Amino acid sequence: MKAKVFVTFKEGVLDPQGKTIKSAIDSLGYKGVEDVRQGKYFELTLDNLPKEKAEKLVKEIAEKILTNPIIEQFRYHIE
Question: Which of 30, 36, 45, 63 is most buried (CB neighbours < 10 A)?
Fold first, then answer.
């Protein structure tokens, strides 16, 4: 069982790396990209847990370890 966790900045938090990427896109002549927000991606390989326990575990790990709850938010998907 795998959990995929996506971490991004909360709305309104400055994203200097996203701005740098956006600038590079513009300088290379690509059109149609209005904004870039960067984030982090984690894959957790889980033991064969019941779905409810797996979700609780992933949520707790994401809240306590993978994110800074003041400036970041997360979403996850368990396969």
Answer: 36
Task: For residue 37, give the 3-state DSSP assignment.
Answer: coil
Q: Which CATH architecture has domain 2-78?
A: 2-Layer Sandwich (3.30)
- pLDDT tens sequence across 2-14: 999 999 999 999 9
Residue from 57, 36, 32, 60 nearest 45 by CA: 57
Q: What are phi and psi of 45, to 5 degrees?
A: -90, 120
Task: Return all residues near 75 (Cβ < 8 A) that are at least 6 apart.
Answer: 5, 6
Domain range list for the chain: 2-78
- Spatial CB neighbours of 36, under 8 Å, sequence gap ≥ 6: 15, 18, 19, 21, 22, 25
pLDDT in tens, 16-32: 999 999 999 999 999 99
